[in-house]
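Fold it.
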Amino acid sequence: MTVILGAMAIAAPAVWPTLIENGVFIASIALMGALFLSCFLVPWERLPANAYLVIPILDLVVIGLARNGAVPAVAGLGVLAIFPVIWLSASGSFARTSIFLSFFGPLLIAMPTVVQKFPRISPSDIATAILLPLMMLAVSLAIRFASANVRVQRQRLEKKDAELRELLIESRDRERLLKTVLDTIDVGIVAVAADGQTVLVNGQQKIFQQPASPATSVPGQNESQPLIFGQDRVTPLPPDKRPIQRAIAGETFADYLVWIGEGPAQRAVSTAARIIKNDDGGFSGAVIVFSDVTGLVEALSAKEELISNVSHEFRSPLMSVLGNVDLVLDEADSLTPSGVQRLEVVQRNAERLLSLVSDLLVSASTVLSVHPRRTDLAGLIETTIGSAQAQADATNVSLSTNVPVPLWAHADPLRIAQALDNLVSNAIKYSPDGGAVTVSASSNEQWVQLQVQDTGMGISEEESERIFTRFFRTQAARNADIPGVGLGLSITKTIVERHGGRISCASKPGAGTTFTVTLPAEGAAAP
């Protein structure tokens, strides 16, 4: 308004000379200048919040004076009322008052012209006088509705902003909690994205990385350095066999033992990995867990060494006892029947103890020699059944086979015979009330599968998961006083795995047990 009216005042002497002589127009210009200066000079911040609205109200007065002072030289100045109408309507204050002023303010501006024509007022004059107020009222209502909608949208945005702030605070709290938990546990954790970038590393994992990093290594890239070794603690693992690289390749694994570092600082670490899937089920990353099991590995090694040493020390005196008992029994004719019977008891128990010591030595041995060659398993099974027949007859257990002849495999006949003896002997032993034991076999181009099935007491699912653990015996076997120390199945598992095969157990309490052995077929190389 200041610009428009100021321009008119400057142009008036040349364009509208009569305006300079009009006191009403001059008064409007003076009032306009006073209002413009008041915008800068009045300390509005010290006044009530809506005190500034006096300016648009007085603007209506200025427009009324200017419009009526410029008529008839300049027409249409009443349309300038749109400026104060917009200001009042957009302020959001005094809704009814602003709507009232938006209509009646322009109406009062136009009324002097109508009054001057009285009584020669035409319908056109009345329409012209009312049209401007109606236009200003429409503008005011439109701005009011728009402002109300903007306020509603702003309130919604403020509400959403508050919710987002709360979620951000909760997210930060959870992040701090997660970081505290991850840094508290004594397990190293690494999270990687699908492209191999590290997403998360906890404090314990950083400790694990220190011995794996040479002095020239780059932080965060420890697996690129050759300080991660296999179980022999000497051979560096190839890149594709290292835990993080295996996880990035999409593998899921558990209890994968590696050695990190060199010298006295070398640590045994058990690793496990689980993949992260996206909404489409695709690979989006992985989490790898590192657990320090150095103490456990060293304890197991010490236990095996102790068992091996003690068993070795037992073996020599037992051999001496058996040798001397055999020599005495060779002269049984000079002994009393009761003396011979007692010596046979000594011989039988010494042989049993020697067998136990032999099993302990095999179990504790870190190297169980296996020499696979072309072997007919059918012949080994027949020999095993023949050897176990007396034991089966003593407990009313029937033995049967379902084995194709010949059945060729790539196996060590001595070790596989030992494994079969253990499985068949156990099947008979754990069928104390009679039953049936069946040995069956099948083969293809890659594998030969043997099954030893009994109808004995069976074991629970929880116990079947531990059945191959050394010295483990089921509760039912202990309750039934069935002799044994829990080494046979552990040795059998070692023999099968040294052949590159696998063994599994399926059983239910009271429904018998089935052991399945899978070995490389003839001509198939062990993995």
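Confidence is low (pLDDT under 50) at residues 216-224.
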